[in-house]
Amino acid sequence: MPPDSDLESPNGRILVVCTGNICRSPYIERLLAHELAGTGITVESAGTGALVDAPIDPESVSRLRAAGADADGFAARQVTPEIVARADLVIGATREHLSAVVPLHPRALRYAFALHDLGDLLSVVTESDIFAAPGDNRVAKVAAAAITKRGIVNPRLPEESGIVDPFRRDPRVFDQMVQEIAASLPVVVTALRG
């Protein structure tokens, strides 16, 4: 169960969102938490149509374990306004997920991104941009710095902007999911770690 206290997340809180909260978002959540271990950043996930209380899909579990990340103790949950409100950064598997999340807490428009869009924006953000950005913690500053690049970085075409949904599909689609996430997650991790 993710902590509710900001004292347990001194450098910020990230929310990762997909549909069922059993394939893409828990994979990103657990891999991101693994990569950000020791930073004081909390990573959690939820779904727009969550299979509430379900564990991570076994195909995602095997890929998490191969990456050295922890897949244990997970239960899918539905995204709520409260979960979105306490995040400093929302990462959607697709832009469509953000369309479902932002109406729950409209201020999230300022800190919600599809993963590929966030990676593209952060690829041109410098450490001095992050340092100068407004925010109470590292995660909030990274989100604010990314926003400033929205008019500078050309957005991807819609068909190139999302992570494939592997739910109930061939294991090769899970491999595709992993490859697509790996194309954008490293730049996000670098910005968040500082």
UniProtKB/TrEMBL annotation:
**Pfam families, A to Z:** LMWPc
- Keyword terms of this UniProt record: Hydrolase, Protein phosphatase
Record-level Gene Ontology MF annotations: protein tyrosine phosphatase activity
Which parts of the chain are coiled coil?
none
Q: Which residues form the active site?
A: 18, 24
> Domain of life here?
Bacteria
Q: What InterPro entries does UniProt report for this protein, alphabetically?
A: LMW_PTPase (IPR050438), Ptyr_pPase (IPR023485), Ptyr_pPase_sf (IPR036196), Tyr_phospatase_low_mol_wt (IPR017867)
The Phosphotyrosine protein phosphatase I domain, residue ranges:
12-191
Q: What does the sequence similarity comment in the record state about its family?
A: Belongs to the low molecular weight phosphotyrosine protein phosphatase family.
Which protein, by its recorded name, is this?
Low molecular weight phosphatase family protein
What organism is recorded for this protein?
Knoellia flava
